[in-house]
Design a protein that fits this description.
The structure is a homodimer of 135-residue chains.
Chain A lengths: L5 H14 L9 H8 L3 H13 L3 E4 L5 E4 L8 H9 L8 H4 L14 H17 L7
Helix pairs in contact in A: 1-3, 1-4, 2-3
Chain A binds a DNA duplex (30 and 30 nucleotides) through helix 3.
DNA sequence: ATAAATAGGACTAAAAAGGTCGTATATATA
DNA sequence: TATATATACGACCTTTTTAGTCCTATTTAT
């Protein structure tokens, strides 16, 4: 419970690895999956999502790979989480993220507003931490 | 992702309900499940766990039910979460909560210590909030 | 032309969460 | 003392979510 997904985990490990690469050399998905013993296909998809969201830049073809799109201290943890999981999938309760009709006790639920405050605190933590802090 | 479970949700709704009961009258699981339209059996189990952990007190038999074991401001959100889900099930990553051998990339994982710091911040939030704050 | 790389959809497997069922036990009261 | 009403709790099933795999297409340096 309250778990971040493996995708986030792999994304962070990858970003940390790319960020620590000297001279901004490109890094391939294979290199990362081999080094950290994680599923190549899954990691590849995560990197594709990070690319789509402009967090990293990809180069296709031979000698291709990935580099960071901006400096580590410009990449917030929340950027990474939102890129990989989608902004609406990050919340303590379903009712905060989705439409009221998604929750069958929305009208009678008494705890959604108190929990929203806690949610804000957690969101702020993710907004305040950047990749530079996990290198 | 990062969701609290329905059990926690139901537990908090129930505690809020019991806490707002006048004169400390006992409240039955049925009353709560009817009022908030939640599964009776599931709620009953949650209340049983809260009882075992000494957060509420149960009375069996006719005219039985539940009352709070202590004042709302003495019941921390973390108490409730730990009682229902178990302390070791609350963490951003598996490796923090469980044995290193549970994580097949433990030795190579580069993000466990940075994430542990974020975990601490979140834990502190749950330690600081009490049931009195959600009534 | 070829080999090495990313892109991405479709699918399957595994794990976690949510929910149900059956039975036992306790107890107020008619 | 029989009964109805309540909690206690393990076993089980179903659904949802997460994790992982497979296949094919595209890009590009050599």
């Amino acid at each position: 419970m309250l778990h971040l997904s493996k995708k986030i985990e792999y994304g962070l490990i990858a970003l940390r690895h790319i960020a620590s690469e000297v001279n901004g050399c490109v890094v391939t998905a294979k290199e990362i999956s081999d080094k950290y013993h994680i599923s190549y296909e899954l990691l590849a998809k995560v990197l594709q999502k990070l690319t789509r969201e402009g967090i990293i830049i990809s180069y296709q073809g031979v000698k291709g790979g990935y580099i960071l799109a901006r400096k580590p201290d410009q990449i917030k943890l929340s950027d990474v989480i939102y890129a990989i999981e989608g902004k609406s999938n990050i919340s303590l309760m379903n009712c905060e993220a989705e439409k009221p009709e998604m929750c069958n006790i929305f009208s009678t639920c008494t705890i959604k507003y108190p929990l929203a405050k806690i949610q804000d605190i957690i969101n702020n933590v993710f907004n305040d931490v950047t990749i530079s802090e996990i290198v």
